[in-house]
Design a protein that fits this description.
The complex is a heterodimer of chains A (282) and B (371). With 282 residues, chain A is an alpha/beta fold. Chain A contains twelve helices and eight strands. Chain A starts with a strand and ends in a 12-residue tail after the last helix. Chain B is an alpha+beta fold. Helices cover 46% and strands 9% of the residues of chain B. Chain B is built from 18 helices and seven strands. The chains are: A alpha/beta (282), B alpha+beta (371). The structure holds iron/sulfur cluster (2 copies) and FE2/S2 (inorganic) cluster.
């Protein structure tokens, strides 16, 4: 059993707490114990950086320090949280003055950023810690006949310093989906376009154009569903899609949901049953 | 000798009806630029591309390889063959610019866009001596603020890769914002010019950047346009340009994270757009799905200390007043009302207690009009 600290961000609590339950249950099947890092806060969503970059570093030094206190590596699912936290870690690991300044503040809470915990995203965690073989072996309901479009999202591939895979030609997501027994489609128009999640509140028309590009591309190649390891990309696909003038009705899945389903967890519990754009495929 | 196949985009608007691709076998040696020169010298002298310095200085040799923007003279052939696992390499001109011939594009448009952001110094006479015989001194510490941005060599890699340019023709381009930012943090530049740059940046799409980070990824010079854009947004808000949705989103983040450690997606549409129905709709949708609705995030343990750290950093950066304390107090009141205790007591309760509080759920459902 591997134990890892789970960073929840805003996507796995409150009304989305069930997402964490799905995740935990799914991870159990591949011998991973995910421990919720309860006292962590929002990573700042790459927005606090607009206010002040040091504030973003401090918030995330605290988040990482909470994992370090438990002696655990940190697993992050959301692409944006992953990027923001990984960027902070890089800054803290390379800038001694910054680290000391922030540690002085963390001390009040009895915390210290040491740099001992690794930050994983789902994709490199599955590849490097769990292994594709283990995923393959956990499959109870192979996704036979499912044509799944693989969509990474930006913040696990760019910028290079924090990328979890080859930024130009990544393969981890395809490998995971293949291990589930799915037929994977990765060459479609929009496969590398931004999902538009972050511009929904700043420039909505931009979001809708992005969705049109990606979901249009997914539809054109005849995929049944698009799967993404990022809960924000997923929300953009499932929720914001309904804001489009003529939604293409492309179902989507947050990667852990479709994994849970393949591992034998039912549609209801895996979360697949609760999407706005229905996942019809069985 | 190991070789690779390049499928090169060919198009001569004066002769060709439409673009086509031509295949060339090239040695896997040196850089992509070496391969292009190899074609020109040995296989096909009609191939047209731009390149001068061959050493990552002039910024003229940027192209796309299998859709990804690369500076030809900086990209080893070996790396390309490894990345694409021996697949043919499709070489194309950059995006979003008119093709003049083959791999050469017309860069006038992005240059014109850049000029709208005043990418030059407007000297402040109180800082810069008007007498040309007097030295205008810049100290090394001052240059820290723009030491990366000055390396931009106008290669347009970022412009080609930019997600905002792709879907908004007015968007000025990542490099243009970095050029502008470079003067925003120059002490010698006059305040009125800084003000104007922000105004022009806003009309040039400052809030349309999707923060995809591709500009940072493709820049061969280590410029970080996406981060400069964040800095410009911060400046815009600081200078009082707060009437944009993006500015209100930032305020939401700053206040809610301080107050509760989290943002509140239920209230985001309301605080950004004044859209009250969105919250009701969301609440209804969640309730129908049988999901418990949290009107406010459960404040985390350690929140009070977290607030101290937050405020301390903001004070040090001279930004403490950016926190809207009346907003924070309003949030506090909401939290106390829902959790039936004052904020300090709540943060001492454990996470699980907060979560399984069934009374809270039914109260919320009644409160929000769910079923
Ligand atoms: S981060 Fe913004 S400026 Fe940079 S490429 Fe993406 S959209 Fe363009
Ligand atoms: S910012 Fe970088 S990628 Fe963009 S034009 Fe300048 S040097 Fe090229
Ligand atoms: S030839 Fe000058 S930058 Fe490549």
């Amino acid at each position: 059993m591997v134990k890892v600290g789970f960073y929840q961000g805003c996507c796995f609590q409150g009304q989305d707490a069930h997402m964490f339950e799905t995740m935990k249950e799914m991870f159990k099947r591949i011998d991973v114990d995910v421990v919720l890092l309860e006292e962590t806060t929002c990573c700042g969503g790459n927005t606090i950086d607009e206010e002040n970059r040091k504030l973003s570093y401090a918030i995330n030094a605290r988040n990482i320090a909470l994992a370090e206190r438990e002696g655990l590596d940190m697993l992050v699912s959301c692409n944006t949280c992953y990027m923001v936290i990984a960027k902070a870690k890089r800054a803290l690991d390379t800038d001694k003055k910054l680290r000391e300044e922030i540690n002085l503040l963390l001390k009040e809470e009895g915390l210290e950023y040491k740099g001992t915990s690794r930050i994983y995203h789902l994709l490199d965690f599955f590849r490097d810690v769990v292994g594709y073989e283990k995923i393959r072996n956990a499959v109870k309901r192979p996704l036979k006949g499912w044509k799944v479009a693989a969509y990474y999202g930006c913040h696990v591939l760019y910028p290079k310093e924090i990328a979890v895979d080859n930024s130009d030609n990544p393969s981890s997501l395809q490998e995971i989906l293949k291990a589930l027994g799915a037929e994977v489609i990765d060459d479609y128009e929009g496969n590398d376009a931004c999902c538009g999640y972050h511009s929904f509140f700043t420039d909505k028309s931009m979001t809708l154009k992005k969705l049109n590009r990606i979901l249009g591309g997914v539809k054109k190649v005849g995929a049944d569903i698009v799967a993404t390891p990022c809960p924000l990309c997923f929300k953009s696909f499932d929720i914001y899609q309904t804001n489009m003038e003529t939604p293409p009705h492309v179902p989507s899945s947050f990667l852990p949901e479709i994994m849970a389903y393949a591992f034998g967890i039912d549609k209801e519990k895996s979360g697949l049953a609760h999407h706005l754009i229905k996942v019809e495929k069985e | 000798m190991e070789t690779a196949i390049l499928q090169v985009f060919r198009y001569d608007p004066e002769k060709d009806q439409a673009p086509y691709y031509k295949e060339y076998e090239v040695p896997v040696e040196g850089t992509l630029l070496n391969a292009l020169l190899y074609i020109k010298d040995n296989l096909d002298s009609t191939l047209t591309f731009r390149a001068f310095c061959r050493s990552e200085v002039c910024g003229s040799c940027s192209v796309k390889v299998n859709g990804k923007t690369k500076l030809a003279c900086k990209t080893p052939m070996k790396e390309l063959v490894e990345t694409w696992k021996g697949k043919p390499l499709r070489i194309e001109p950059l995006n979003h610019m008119k093709v003049i011939k083959d791999l050469v594009v017309d860069i006038d448009k992005p240059i014109e866009k850049m000029k709208t952001l005043i990418p030059w110094l407007v000297p402040d006479p109180r800082v810069v001596p008007t007498d040309p015989m007097h030295e205008s001194i810049i100290y090394p510490e001052e240059m820290e603020a723009y030491k990366d941005q000055i390396h931009c060599m106008l290669c347009f890699s970022c412009y080609s890769a930019c997600e905002a340019v792709a879907d908004n023709d007015r968007y000025r381009g990542p490099f243009a914002f970095s050029k502008a930012y470079r003067f925003q943090v120059d002490r010698r530049d006059i305040e009125t010019a800084k003000e104007k740059r922000i105004r022009y940046a806003i009309s040039g799409g400052l809030w349309s950047c999707v923060q995809c980070q591709k500009c940072i990824y493709v820049c061969p010079k280590g410029v970080k346009p996406a981060e400069d854009i964040q800095n410009l947004r911060g400046q815009a808000v600081k200078k009082g340009f707060t009437d944009k949705p993006g500015a209100r989103k930032l305020k939401h983040f700053v206040d809610w994270i301080y107050a509760t450690g989290q943002i509140n997606r239920l209230y985001l549409p309301e605080e950004v757009y004044g859209n009250k129905e969105a919250r009701e709709k969301l609440t209804k949708a969640y309730t129908e799905m049988g999901v418990e609705v949290w009107e406010v995030p459960k404040p985390t343990k350690g929140l009070m200390k977290f607030r101290d750290i937050y405020l301390e950093i903001l004070s040090k950066e001279d930004k403490a007043l950016d926190l809207d304390f009346s907003h924070v107090r309003k949030i506090d009141r909401m939290v106390s009302e829902i959790f039936k205790a004052d904020i300090c007591t709540i943060v001492d309760r454990t996470h699980e207690e907060g979560r399984s509080s069934k009374g809270l759920i039914s109260k919320l459902k009644g409160l929000l009009g769910g079923k």
